[in-house]
Specification:
Layout lengths: L2 H15 L3 H45 L21 H8 L5 H31 L5 H10 L9 H11 L6 H7 L3 H13 L3 H8 L4 H12 L1 H17 L2 H6 L8 H4 L12 H35 L1
Length: 307
Amino acid sequence: MTDATRTAGARGPASAASVDPRTSVAARRAQRRRRELLRRWGWGVPLWLLALLFLLPFAWMISTSLKPDVDAFTVPMRWIPRDVRWENYLEVLFGEGSILPAFGNSVLVALLRVAGELTTATLAGYAFARLRFRGRGPVFIAYLATSLIPAQLLLVPRFVYFQKLGLYDSLWALILPGMFTVLGTFLMRQFFIAQPGEFAEAARIDGANEWQIFRRIYLPTAMPMISALAILTFVWSWNDFETPLVFLSTPESFTLPLALTSFTDETGAMAPGVSMAAAVISILPILVVFLIFQRRFVQAMTESALK
């Protein structure tokens, strides 16, 4: 054996022992970070592409709202208008067929429906979940069974009923039925059932009545679900077209979905520029409401999925 071989053999174990353990730990951390980065990009890129695909109709709507009518359906399409026409928005807001009265009607109907829905759904949901009374189960099943009836079958009886009450062609014909929904009661009942009952029992021992237990213990914990229900109710009311079409007849009482159908050109066809401008304006309140309550909405949906 040569001197060089003996020297290399002598240095081998020393070199292996001299490897810093922190180097291997850092290498493993770097490898985990690379895997995490690849995983995020692997999920993130397809989701971003899918989001952009869903946003294309909204981009087309905004682009069309800023074009003259003659350029709305040109092929190939120009996403950025050559002649930006802000007059479409001015006509929609302050022109002869302004949507501002209909906008105000929609806001009033939506707010009252949301307030009524949250009040009735939380109280009824708590009663079905936490109060003990005879026939609670059958009554709740019967209430759920009403959701099996198609809403279209109820339009004629409701029309006759509201006409006899003198509420036809008034906003109350839209507000009152929207204050009571089976889905809202069901969601709140399921939420209250999932909550622990120990705090309520302790409060009863301390002398609290049922209203105090509901208001001070269960209602604060239900805020995420209440926010989610408020968003759903607002969107349903804001986008409702069928019910106003049946119960409203005068333009002064129209809500926004009905008012959007009134923008036509001199030939009676839809005027794409002003129609899309009105549609853009009609979407803004929904975006504002969702942006305000989105955190609670996501929290409520996550908690419901986990439970």
